Amino acid sequence: MFKGTNASSGIGIGTAVIVEEAELVIEKRTVADVEEEVQRFKGALDKTMKDTEALAADLATRVGEKEAEILQGHMMLLMDPMLTGEIENTIKGENICSEFAIEMVCTMYANVFAGMEDELMQQRATDMRDIKTRMQRVLLGVDTVDIASLPAGSILVAKDLTPSMTAGINPKNVTGIVTELGGKTSHSAILARALEIPAVVAVSDFMAEAKNGDFVILDGDAGVVFVNPNDAIKTEYTAKRDAFLAEKKELEKYIGQPTVTMDGVTVELVANIGKPQDVEKVLQYDGEGVGLFRTEFLFMDRNSMPTEDEQFEAYKKVAEALAGKPVIIRTLDIGGDKEIPYMGLEKDENPFLGYRAIRLCLDRKEDIYKPQLRALLRASAFGNIKIMIPLVTCIDEYREAKTLIDELKMELDRKGIAYNKNIQVGIMVETAAASLIADIFAKEVDFFSIGTNDLTQYTMSVDRGNDKISYLYSTFNPAVLRSIKRIITCAREAGIMVGMCGEAASDPMMIPLLLAFGLNEFSMSASAILYSRKLITSLSTKELQEVADKAMSFATTKEVEDYMREFVAGL
Ligand code: PEP
Ligand code: MG
User: Fold this and answer.
1) Fewest beta carbons within 10 Å, which of 71, 355, 462, 491?
2) Annotation says 490 is catalytic
């Protein structure tokens, strides 16, 4: 049995497919017949082109046009006569095999691109290396795993999942995910939850143990993985999986029900999304709105910034689909660890404490922030959009953003463009500083949303993605709990709405405490909504006060967790 971090609920049973970028060995081979070798190269070029075309078309229909753009860029390179001509000439001139000629020519171009100042050109270097490897794989007959067309019942095993890998995952075929890296709040874990694929992450050295074709069982709740287990384990987990699926079906009866506690307190149960397409799941699971739209996903996996109009269309689509229900859209939370090559950001020494989110946006008003805010304002004419600012640490940041929004409103007025004049502007409370001055913020901002993923990281001074120190990373730590309670109290005293969009909002052990503290809105992965509604409607906030007082009286994380685990088990 392997132990990891439980990242996405459910039991995955299936066949391991190892996704690994195998090292290619490119040898310099002299060829006897250069004409024949040129034909071999042309054949490989043709196949690479066709494969790329098919992949781009598939990605465009399944995920989106923008995601397919990178692959379309690869096709342009493959069609470039200068590049292909030079490879042919190298084969002929040096009497060498195609794979080595490709290596020489493509590497030379990639190095030239990499040395250029322009970020876009540097991105071309990555593209050039990518097509080089693709052609060489075809020539050497080394298969790449095509994630989009894995057979049904596959358990994806990888060191880590890149955004482009995850874009290709088809939940019909992938029944589980195991990765060696990542944490509960890493974006691959968040994506696994959005796709409702059971996942266990941070399983050390798993790749050394598992082989392609191994029979794998994983428990996404307990965070354990079995490789080729015995029959007793197979029977036990097959039963667990069936029970999990039956329970999921059972939860459907909560669709259309209000989210009201036993003592009549109504709360909002809303969803976290990353792309306009995610709205489908929100509606499927009866989300009462969107509590967090992470807009950075619109900026990732592409070669240039989405234009104001593209952003406007994306925000409008979500606002319209939610038909008047609240849609909280967070302005760009990028920089530091979340790299976007075309933005030309320098590497930060300390990414989580660095040049990111609102700090970056206020520094790049013209090319980044204004177009986004303008797109948000324009889209606000089509639904109930609220603007949320991430990583705020002091009131000046909020004021500066608010002034900018007011200026843009006047600009839209002058141009006669419609927008919601009363659009609400709130903040994520996710830094220790914002928590400590929550009373000051509460007097000025329209709403709070507590980002526990970062709040825990900044309160505990613990990198949220580092599994060596993950024992410190818990929202049940008394310091974090006090911070959460204080933020909610400050908001309630000032009469503003307070929600939570960090992963803790859907934690069954945390929900009773949040209800007792007076949280108004719970924002989570859409797939967690119905279970949370079931739990909330079974609780009474009055009776929970005692539970919360007791939980707050403990000195250690373990005591709080043990107590809450026992409480939830007894429900
Ligand atoms: C958070 O920090 O809790 C949050 C919701 O935002 P993200 O996970 O995108 O940092
Ligand atoms: Mg955050």
Assistant:
1) 355
2) no
Q: Hey, CA dihedral for 10, 14, 16, 17, is it positive or negative?
A: negative
Q: Check if 452 has its Cβ closer than 6 Å to any atom of ligand 1.
A: yes
User: Average pLDDT of 57-85?
Assistant: 79
Q: Is residue 64 predicted with pLDDT exceeding 80?
A: no
CB distance 430 to ligand 1 below 6 Å: yes
> For 80-196, where are the alpha helices, taking DSSP H only?
81-94, 98-114, 119-140, 163-167, 187-195
CA distance 44 to 550: 68
Using alpha carbons, select from 261, 271, 249, 260 the residue that is nearest to residue 321.
271
**Which atom of ligand 1 is the closest one to the Cα of 190?**
8
**Mean pLDDT of the 115-125 span:** 77
* pLDDT(52) > 90: no
Cα 26 to middle of ligand 2, angstroms: 43
Q: Is the pLDDT of residue 426 over 80?
A: yes
Atom 8 of ligand 1, residue of closest alpha carbon: 453
User: Is 106 considered catalytic here?
Assistant: no
Looking at residue 144, what is its pLDDT? 66
Residue 511: pLDDT over 60: yes
pLDDT category at 162 given cuts 50, 70, 90 is low
For the domain made up of 265-569, give the CATH fold: TIM Barrel (3.20.20)
CATH class, 2-21+146-230 region = alpha beta
CATH number of 34-140: 1.10.274.10
Q: Is 431 in the pocket of ligand 1 (CB under 6 A)?
A: no
The label of the residue with tokens 């206020």 reads 362
The upper half-sphere exposure of residue 569, i.e. CA atoms within 13 Å in the direction of its Cβ, equals: 6
Ligand nearest to C-alpha 501: 1
* Domain boundaries, given as residue ranges, for the chain: 2-21+146-230, 34-140, 265-569
Q: Which residue has the tokens 């990111």?
A: 356
* DSSP strands (E only) in 181-239: 199-201, 215-219, 224-227
- DSSP string over 450-510: E-HHHHHHHHHT--TT-GGGGGG--TTSHHHHHHHHHHHHHHHHHT-EEEE-SGGGG-TTT
- Please compute the mean of the pLDDT values over residues 145-157 and round it to a whole number: 86
Separation CA 375–CA 308 (nearest Å): 5
